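Support request, please re-run this one:
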Amino acid sequence: MEWMQSLGGAGWWRILSVLVLGWLAFFFGRTLRAPEVPLIERIARVSDPALPPPLQRYTRWLTAIWCAYFVLAALLTMTAGSVSFSSGAWVWGGTVILFAGEHWLRPRLFPDHTFPGLVQQVRDTWSVWHPGKHPAD
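Re-run finished. Output below.
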């Protein structure tokens, strides 16, 4: 138990961050195995049940990108020299950049397809992560 006390508050935050990022990597990555439907494809199908094959491939690729990002973020958090606001801020910053960048890129890659707005995407994500519950519940 002495080793637990030697971690201090910053060490616990690092462990918690690595565990959460690792869980997210697992949560996304497990859906890439056959016969699973990739997580992001599940979310996309809420608004577009007849998702065309090019978007199915794109959502599989995007699920893999998010999985890889979470693995990388966990590894970098684990090996970071010190835990401070800035070491956690880059993870949040990277998440925002990846999310916003993909949101910007998607209509450019598929100009003939209509995509839901951000609020609807959040609702769709909620419905996949919490089946049977409405976000306001």
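The radius of gyration is 18 Å. The chain has a mean pLDDT of 85.
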